[in-house]
Amino acid sequence: TTCTASCSAGGSRAWTTPCSSASGSSTASAAASRRASSTTTATSFPSCVRSSAATSRSARRSRTPASSSTRIASSRRGGRKMLARFKATDSHELKCGMDEILEAQRKGEINEDHVLFIVENINVAAIETTLWAMEWAVAELVNHPETQQKLRREMDTVLGAGHQVTEPDTHRLPYLQAVVKEALRLRMAIPLLVPHMNLRAAELGGHGVPAESKVLVNAWHLANDPGLWERPGEFRPERFLEEERHVEAGGNDFRYLPFGAGRRSCPGIVLALPFLCITVGHLVQNFELLPPPGQGMLDTTEKGGQFSLHILKHSTIVAKPRVF
Ligand code: HEM
Questions:
Q1: How confident is the model at residue 305, as a pLDDT?
Q2: Which of 87, 149, 223, 321 is deepest in the core (most CB within 10 A)?
Q3: Does any domain span residue 203?
Q4: Is the CB of 101 under 6 A from ligand 1?
Q5: What are the CA-CA distances from residue 108 to residues 45, 104, 114, 178 (Å)?
Q6: Are residues 160 and 273 part of one domain?
Q7: Do 103 and 166 fall within a single domain?
Q8: Is 260 in the pocket of ligand 1 (CB under 6 A)?
Q9: Per the annotation, does 96 bind a ligand?
Q10: Spatial separation of the C-alpha atoms in residues 158 and 72, rounded to whole Å
Q11: What is the pLDDT of residues 276-298, one digit of tens each?
Q12: Of 99, 121, 143, which marks where a domain is finished?
């Protein structure tokens, strides 16, 4: 509900650290971001692009040590060179998101800095999140051989042994989808989502939320609350085929928001879910995934990052090829 309230009240977002101990710098960068985005409100570019481009710059300013700022500066120089080689495609051709961004630059709605920040933002939002989710899914499968077996059986039965899973196949593999959903539930990659900000005052569950509050949604708790889920601490993909079969990852149920919900939810869900299904599917189809020799189970102690929940210790697992 928090998420929807903030979205319907304007859907702005402060890309700042959710950590209260850093509130000084985050408040400063949130204020800077509001200022930055308010200077561009006359443009017709979508608000999500305006604010993420401007705020990522202010957020990074407040937390980047000198050594990495040198790296960023040089990678930005490289980015500028690459950018110079690209042109927005002809308007009659099929367009992708990048064309829209270049088109906005051409019209003067955003500048080159904005383009680079948007691309960098998308890269971070897309690559790390997917990587963490994949690591969790593999770790849970290593620790649950019976789930692996059941998944392998589903793919062998539906696709035929040896037929490599492709994206259209994933729609015929409900257990594969359930495995991915369960990994995203139990080990939510972005447990507090990304901080939201309500532009207007709102009321939520009888509580007043002043305008421009930083709103954190504890999506991990919503998805792991024993009052809301049956045995939530267990990795049990079957729940998404049984009592929770109507729950989707796209935000149709506020107990399960691995990608957020509403206007500022993750646009990458259309890429991330098939990608996770295909990768996990391929691995399980072709290999038996086992813990390192001499180790019964993988250590799945969690580590929290700035926004993330990832695995503390990386392990080298054994992937034993299957004989078809
Ligand atoms: C398993 C993979 C992924 C997970 C778990 C994930 C999760 C999230 C979450 C929780 C948010 C914030 C939603 C909110 O606060 O309401 C978000 C935002 C975002 N994600 Fe993802 N994401 C994933 C993959 C991707 C991919 C593949 C892309 C791009 C290709 C992407 C692009 C973005 C962008 C651009 C935003 C910001 C949207 C905005 O501010 O309006 N994500 N993601």
A1: 85
A2: 223
A3: no
A4: no
A5: 10, 6, 11, 45
A6: yes
A7: no
A8: yes
A9: no
A10: 47
A11: 999 999 999 999 999 999 999 99
A12: 121
